[in-house]
Amino acid sequence: MEAGEEFGPWLSRQLKLAGRTQAELADELGLTRAAVSAWITKRSVPRPTVMAEIAKALGTDLGTVHTRTTDTQAGLPVTWYHRPGYQDGGRDGGNAAAFAFDADVQVLARETCQNSLDERIVDNGRPVRVRYTIHELTGEALDAFRAAVLWDELQPHYSAVSESAADQKVGRVVDAGVRDMFEKGRLVLLRVDDYNASGLTGDDYDDGKFAAVVRRQLESLKSGRGAGGSYGLGKATLWATSALGMVLINSTLSVPHEGRTERRVIGRLELPWRSVDGNSYAGPAWLGRPDPETTGAEVVRSWWADEETVERLHLTRDGDEPGTSFLIVGAHDVASLEQGGSDPTDEDFESGSDDDGTRDVRAMHRRLVEALGRDFWAAMTGGGSRLPLLETSVRTMRNGEVVIDEQKVDPTDAQPSRTRALRAFYEGTTVDRLTESGQVALRTVPLKLPLSGGLRGTLGIHSGMLLVTEAEDKDGTPNQVHSLRGNRMTIKKSTVGGLPLGVSSFQAVLLVGQAAGESAPFAEEAEEFLRAAEPPEHDRWGQSEELTLRWSHTAHHRISRLTTEVNTAVRDVVVRPKSATSQESAKLRKKLTVQRTAAASRRSSGPTVPELVELDAEIGESKEWRITAEVKLPRADELPAMTPVVLLEVRSGGRPRLDWAELVAVEGCEVVGGVLHFEPGARKAVFRGATDPTSHPVRTELTRLALELRTGSGE
Prior knowledge:
The chain has 21 helices and 26 strands. By secondary structure, the chain is α+β, with helices and mostly antiparallel strands. A hairpin with a 7-residue loop joins strand 13 and strand 14.
């Protein structure tokens, strides 16, 4: 239950909102001005019988005066305040910060979840819970929402933006959003709720989290070196995802402000410069209660809303747990079209539909789930004494009815191999070498931290933790390293190159900074260094302006050396040691013969044909030969199709031909009916095959093979 504000400050604000003085209230109550002043200064409180008279004077009920958890509705009403145009004639065509990101719900998920992780309340040990709600409004529900956001006040401003849309990119987006709402009679709301987070604490104008998010740009007040954000740009994705440039906010505070914590509400609108009724406006606008302490009471501030108001604004939160709800009005997902997510079909064109799919709520739902599982699997994974930092879910509704049930994102389903690796690290069950399925190998890799201020030398060596395990199909691209630091969001994804043929697919995880554990040396320093090496998207480590200013222009070379150390360690884990298998490998290579046509290929006047250059073979569990081959492709406009043929070497007579049980293309070619067809322009091709043991005339261990490439069908 929310604690009410002290009576004196509450009464003082109600008088200001109503435009009344202490003397006027004293006269109406039949009391002295000194008595009212004593209440305001907290030297005394009114008797219960006087409380009823105060409620009547303020035009509210007795319960509101007693609880003081909301403002009275008397006085200045909630309205939109539009920032006046610049006096020097300057114009902004929109918020430049929003152009740092695409209108993409997957980018939105990455940035908002990162912010929620940074604001997690850590004292209770619980994860921050982030829920995404996609809600499509039509008909009466849409009309009611437009009334709640005072659309009639905004209509002239949107009309002015539409009139100049041809000259402004932001204007074209806004114009399309307004037309979609009215012509198609729909509006997509996308709400992001977090729980067990700090909330937007602080004053409306002074330094604090509220002002940093709602009032300012390029300001980040993240606490701790492990925070994900550092540029103050992430919040811009909220407005970038809104085709109308509108975001409404309801915050439950972890630290009381003005004596209360629940239902602190405000809205912000991002539009380009515009002229309405002869007045120019700079761009942004805010929905709030006029602040009587500002000149002419024009500027609005946040207000403590009642439950009915937040319900009409679709901002109702579950319970009183601290955190913030952001409602993106007119959500669209333009970037989904580039990924083939929602392109219109032929039937859409035939029916005359011009829906581009950017407001497809089912596609938004799917892409949000994919992004959360891909980027935050580690933050949602626990094990041993380490608890998850994050829980996420997505649900989709239409006019208050459930379209897709709330779907909790499961990291073991999204990234099975990587979550297995991280759990093994937390539980202390890693091994030095992979010998069985399901094992996780651990290696330490050094990050040499430079001295700051351009000084030469090394501050210290931080030990990153590298985890390697076999890959599963659902992990996505194999043979990748996912790197992460303190907040456990995937920062960098890189593929390990230079692997020999025949290496089993794997996945690797690099833990650096505070993610490497409390005992890792120089963990905080590594966290700060790597954070400075990230761009606004926080999707890689490399050269950055902050890295140059705080350390040196060559500091990024330390990160390059870390990557080299990681790749070397991965190869050491996944490549079979020669010392342990040299005798077996030598025996296998003696049994494998490559039939080359080198003399023919060297003749410049002769035919241009592909050539086998490298082979790897082993005997499988079913006694089949498993072969991986690399083919060198000459430069030619057209290459002939070739058939791989595997034969048994014998001392005399014809060589028996074995059947293929499996033949698959890996790179630079495709297999059609057992024949290799090479991709134009490729310089090499790789294929794998397994022989059919039933076609072996003798025991596999006693055979020697010859592999040939034959033109055509291979007969």
